[in-house]
Each structure stands twice: as structure tokens, then as C-alpha cells.
Amino acid sequence: MSISGSRRKRLPRLLLGLAILGLAAWILYIAQNSFGASGGAIAPVKTLWILTVIVFWYLLPVFWALDATLSHRARAVFAIFATNMLLRAIVELWMMYISDSWKHSYGIGHDIISFLLCLALAVLVRREEKWISVFFAYCAVLFVSETIFATYLRNVTGADGSVFFLPSSEAHNSIMIATGVVVVVSGIVGYGLIRTWTNATPSFANPGN
User: Fold this and answer.
1) N or C: which end of the chain has fewer CB within 10 A?
2) 209 in a domain, yes or no?
3) Is residue 32 part of a domain?
4) Is the pTM of this model over 0.70?
5) Does residue 180 fall inside a structural domain?
């Protein structure tokens, strides 16, 4: 089977992952707005933002780290990034929902570190398939966006940790519009990356090298 054929065969697994995450995002929206879950109410566009970063920072890196049609270097770089984010998820969720000690400043600090990591990883894979460097460069953009959003949340709520989300409100229209723009652009970029991965010709002779 050709490389592109092998990738197309794996595509339904990725689409299933996207569908599961979409369902999880809907459950989060219901839980926050109907059942008073910790962190406060959440606007629809902010729910889509969370879905966006989970796809880019968790689903896609793990999926591509396990992709045998990529080179060892590319898979290792995806694994490094995925490990960085999975460790954050473990610590952040524990501090948010168990120890009640989370602060937005912690997340902002990690966003800055991850931004720098993405730039470094983009350089490391510059000789691999071009879409891989594009992926990490765009993830760096998302970390800048997340830093701005988190700083806004901390400033407008006056709480450095007890409120995790922004509700629908005219007072937050500017940040909601900005979030919506990033979500739409991310959807376009994500589609382009997945399409390119499916049809790309690897820069190495044998899969897995």
C-alpha cells in the first residue's frame, strides 16, 4: 500500500477522535451552564476555543506521534510536544478540580514556555515534510492567543484561578469576536494540515526511517 493510501486508511480514526472531542465539548458546555460546574458558565465560542486547542495540542500530536508513515525524527518531535501538553493537563486538572489551587498565571507561564518549545520544534523538523513545521508554527500562534485570553480572563474577573471560563455577555463582545476569528482560522488551518498530511509525499525513502 502506498504512503498516501496508508494515511487515508488511518483518516477515519482521526475523524472519530474529532467526533468524540466534539461530544465532550458539548457535555462541557451543558455541565458548565446547566449544572453549575466549577469554573463558571462558558460561552459557546469559548467552548469551541477549548475544542480547538485540544485538537491542536492533544489529538493531532498524539495521532501523528503514532503515525508510522512519518520519520522517526518527526514522530519524536510530536511525542515531545504531546508529552509536554499531557503533563500540563494532569497538573492543571488536578489543581483546578481537586486541590483548588490553580492560578491563571501558572497557565500563562506554561503558554510562554510552550510557545518557545513550538518554535524550537518547528526548526528541528524544517527538513521534514513542510506541513509539520507549519503545524508547530501555528501552535505557537495559538499559545500567544491563549496567553492573551487568559490574561483578559484574569483581569476582568479579578480572580487568579477560581473562574476558568467566560460566559456570554455583551461586556465581553470584543474578546468573543477575537476568539471566534481564531477558531474559524484554526478550522481552516486544521483542515489544510490534515488534507496535506493525507496527500503528502514523505521526504524519506522508507516509512518509519
Assistant:
1) N
2) no
3) yes
4) yes
5) yes
